Amino acid sequence: xxxxxxxxxxxxxxxxxxxxxxxxxxxxxxxxxxxxxxxxxxxxxxxxxxxxxxxxxxxxxxxxxxxxxxxxxxxxxxxxxxxxxxxxxxxxxxxxxxxxxxxxxxxxxxxxxxxxxxxxxxxxxxxxxxx
Amino acid sequence: xxxxxxxxxxxxxxxxxxxxxxxxxxxxxxxxxxxxxxxxxxxxxxxxxxxxxxxxxxxxxxxxxxxxxxxxxxxxxxxxxxxxxxxxxxxxxxxxxxxxxxxxxxxxxxxxxxxxxxxxxxxxxxxxxxxx
Lengths: 131, 132
Hints:
heterodimer; A: alpha+beta; two-stranded antiparallel ribbon; 1 helix; 5 strands; globular; B: alpha/beta; Rossmann fold; four-stranded parallel β-sheet; three-stranded antiparallel β-sheet; 3 helices; 27% strand
């Protein structure tokens, strides 16, 4: 998903580890800074708030029994490290970023297009019922 | 309608380093239109719709668009992927109102949902990709 059909070339930055991560299992062991890359052009406001907002799901591990996979984690101020910004469940792929293409980064646009191509492979793979 | 009142932000993290690209799919491949038919479902006649459709038309063989407020499941017929977008969130009190979409868990065509509204839709369908 990060190579075809568009090569995704992230520009990495080191960001402060959000304090909310510390309250979850394993959070205290995280380093002071995390390696991130911008998918969309965000503001950098005091307190680490970034806009536009996106959405993340709680951290869940990829699960073949559910035909679900976590594809990319999202830096967030409300949940845990590893919360899922881009994930797939059956034939549904959730893109958690809210910016339109013109305000995505180049890497973000490439990744978005790759996500469109990726989910196309899941025709007929409706989500299985919860176990 | 289902309501939720939370959300989070917008960067992809270090987990990405696990998937940093190594191989090269040449720029030539990227310049050709990809043989997929994509339906964008969103708010009609908005800059956001224009923005998304513009990008998609540049790269995919066929791109259609539909009004999120009026779309029906059968509108996805003839497309390989349906993108469900929602430019604004309706907030009532301290809660976000989930947009209505006609694509349920039994819908078989590939769907890409976007941002907070997409997460709410996934949540309403009981998917892992919802807010949960």
